[in-house]
């Protein structure tokens, strides 16, 4: 059995508290003791049976963290967060992520960014031997508060759900109201231990323990030792076939097979043709394509991280806070070339009722409309045969750098700190090559002209996810589908947070 304890020690500089902690170690004999709010750079009086990993920031005295572990446990790697709030310790058979989250009193923005950007850097998807524990200073379950106004933190909740972790205490005690911190305003269970859901069967017990020298209660998790045995990931290999549903990859395969078939008669048999002619080439084609797709995803991820870093720097330096940001409400609508006054009035009413700030329109057949322009700037790029695009911008917003594609299928505009690109791609099987050229060449040529992060919207007339072909229409993450204001299409609405400066 393995014992893991999480405890907010509330400072450990006093000699009496250090001595009490050593007695605590002897009494409960944990394999790992994770401390938060330590406020020290070394622990010379630690019990001889244990070693300590310390992460303390001199400037931020309330955010120190420490992992105490038994000497016989093999330590492989340590990662520390610069402010002292996180330690990730990778041991031979288990990884411990000890953290002390910012409180909402320090700055709501700091807590928001901590769970959105900082903590995820120390967590890895599908890591079945990582345990997350510490002081979260927020809740994700209504049962974990009493008489206190702590709000559920959506960033932490989304992170825990996405990584498929479970609350160890709540798993063992689903109906018990127990709290780890008591204040004049009420009680809350902000000290928690999370483990991967696949390790649920190894939980033996999880209880709260009083610690006389702290205003927090300790949490002790007991696990069957099996949870810390390394997982043999080679037992079963899962074949990744998702790339076969990528329309661009399908096109590459079609061209490859077409060329390969033309040379089949150069070989003695079909088997010989496969083994000597195309097997290795097909393998190389698949590997190259997948590597390029991975590079694209990683590049986009780094770009998003860079944007978040910039926001964090500005907030930390006091230049901005959350009040400096507001939500832009955006929609994308294929209007089907509506020409009647009644339907244009319906469009305007829809935009006003939804408090929409920016609206991308496709299949636009008009350059101006007095009804719409009473509330919105109408920037239209009308091409032949109703192939036009347009962007509506609420009058109170300023815009710049308008770009128009000659055929009317693309319009680009800068608003605040974003570039908005609205497109209407070619439709139908006969236009497949034109559509591919538009999406692969024309669209990227316009997107690289901006240094701002851009929002791409419109009617793509194709899918990049097999799920988008389902009979039941579902919205992308964070989006909402509304009844159409034109025939045959629904409206996708979503929000974007932007700076006011």
UniProtKB/TrEMBL annotation:
CDD domains: L1-EN (cd09076). The keyword Manganese applies. Its EC number is 3.1.11.2. It catalyses: Exonucleolytic cleavage in the 3'- to 5'-direction to yield nucleoside 5'-phosphates. The record marks 216 as: Interaction with DNA substrate. GO terms for molecular function: DNA-(apurinic or apyrimidinic site) endonuclease activity; double-stranded DNA 3'-5' DNA exonuclease activity; metal ion binding; phosphoric diester hydrolase activity. Mg(2+) binds at residues 8, 37, 137, 215-216. Probably binds two magnesium or manganese ions per subunit. Residues 7-216, 331-465 form the Endonuclease/exonuclease/phosphatase domain. InterPro entries: AP_endonuc_1, Endo/exonu/phosph_ase_sf, Endo/exonuclease/phosphatase. GO terms for biological process: base-excision repair. Keywords: Hydrolase, Magnesium, Manganese, Metal-binding. The record marks 137 as: Transition state stabilizer. The record marks 191 as: Important for catalytic activity. Its cofactor is Mg(2+); Mn(2+). The keyword Cytoplasm does not apply. Belongs to the DNA repair enzymes AP/ExoA family. PANTHER family: AP ENDONUCLEASE (PTHR22748), DNA-(APURINIC OR APYRIMIDINIC SITE) ENDONUCLEASE (PTHR22748:SF6). This is exodeoxyribonuclease III.
